[in-house]
């Protein structure tokens, strides 16, 4: 099932969500303008390379112009292809505005970037010697989804299931759609630990632990930042 929207209106204009989508699209346009060799070098520089991050944590220089810790942020705006970008931005567009509505613009941006950093660190923890660059907004967006399922478990997610030339629509509660998504990520993450497989970052695949970790940290950070507060986002800063 591919989500297309939810039935959860907001009271604000989600400027930060719009800005994040725009920043990711602009970064991808820049990536697309680079020749293959320059693109590989750029991604290696700006994405998280677990092995290099491990060395930097140990105080060993990796001789990169960008500090390796900074890639925990820069990697969140890079994508490996159009489908990767499109899928991430679709989920951010659907679920981000409601979380921003509850947290407020400033705290939502802090929340989003923090979830992305913690998601990347989760993936790093399970593959500290990997030399494969990890990139994408998936971990941060997983954090948004973790907060969303807590705050709006019964909101309806409307999606389509492509069946050849037919595209029937379905409505399911958020707790079912997002809960199933999380269980899937956690399952594949566990499989990648125990079995030689094409699943996971070691084969250049999907960073399932970043997804699962981002989701969990989003569910933790959201309430801490006022996800359930009755105050308006502006009042919560006072």
UniProtKB/TrEMBL annotation:
One of its GO terms (molecular function) is peptidase activity. It comes from the Bacteria. Keywords: Hydrolase, Membrane, Protease, Transmembrane, Transmembrane helix. The chain crosses the membrane at residues 12-30, 77-96, 108-126, 132-150, 157-183, 206-228. It holds the Pfam family Rhomboid. GO terms for biological process: proteolysis. It is found in: Membrane. The keyword Transcription does not apply. The keyword Transmembrane helix applies. Residues 68-225 form the Peptidase S54 rhomboid domain. It is a multi-pass membrane protein. Belongs to the peptidase S54 family. This is Rhomboid family intramembrane serine protease. It comes from Nostoc paludosum FACHB-159.
């Amino acid at each position: 099932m591919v989500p297309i929207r939810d039935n959860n209106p907001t009271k604000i204009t989600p400027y930060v969500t719009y800005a994040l989508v725009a920043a990711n699209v602009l970064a991808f346009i820049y990536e697309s303008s680079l020749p293959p060799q320059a693109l590989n070098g750029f991604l290696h520089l700006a994405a998280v390379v677990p092995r290099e991050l491990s060395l930097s944590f140990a105080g060993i220089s990796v001789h990169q112009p960008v500090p390796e810790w900074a890639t925990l942020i820069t990697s969140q705006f890079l994508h490996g292809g159009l489908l990767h970008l499109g899928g991430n931005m679709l989920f951010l567009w659907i679920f981000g505005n409601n979380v921003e509505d509850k947290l407020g613009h400033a705290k939502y941006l802090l929340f989003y970037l923090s979830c992305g950093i913690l998601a990347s660190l989760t993936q790093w923890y399970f593959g500290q010697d990997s030399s494969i660059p990890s990139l994408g907004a998936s971990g941060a967006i997983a954090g948004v989804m973790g907060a969303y399922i807590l705050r709006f478990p019964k909101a309806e997610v409307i999606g389509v299931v492509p069946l050849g030339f037919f595209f029937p629509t379905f409505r399911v509660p958020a707790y079912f759609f997002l809960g199933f998504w999380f269980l899937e990520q956690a399952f594949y993450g566990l499989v990648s630990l125990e079995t030689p497989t094409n699943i996971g970052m070691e084969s250049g695949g999907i960073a399932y632990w970043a997804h699962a970790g981002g989701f969990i940290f989003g569910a933790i950070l959201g309430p801490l930042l006022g996800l359930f507060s009755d105050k308006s986002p502006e009042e919560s800063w006072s």
